[in-house]
Amino acid sequence: MALVSNVSNAFNPAAVLHSIGSRLGNMVAVFAEAQSRRDRIMDLLDKSDEDLAKMGLRREDIVHHVFGDRIFV
């Protein structure tokens, strides 16, 4: 009886580079999104309570407002 396998153990440098590039790209995207949200929070914290009220926000709701699409409480 013969054992036949289609699995190849060959090293594929192009696949490795593609994988590394994809992971780095994802890391940059995640970092950029985090920075953007942090900047938005800081901008809102710099506003007065009156300005926040005009926007329909309270100071304690800023983080939930900025991360509302990511955090479900």
Would you write up a description of this structure?
It is a single chain. The N and C termini lie far apart (60 Å). It contains three helices and no strands. With 73 residues, the chain is mostly helical. The chain is elongated, with a radius of gyration of 24 Å. The model has no long low-confidence stretch (mean pLDDT 89). The chain is 62% helix and 0% strand. The protein has a domain at 36-73.
Short description:
The protein is 62% helix and 0% strand.
Features:
mainly alpha, 3 helices, elongated, 73 residues
Any idea what the radius of gyration is? 24 Å
Helicity, in percent? 55-70%
Element order: H for helix, E for strand: HHH
Report the portion of residues in β strands.
Answer: under 5%
* Low-confidence blocks of residues: none
Number of helices: 3
Structural class: mainly alpha
Protein topology:
Elements: H1 13-46, H2 49-54, H3 62-66
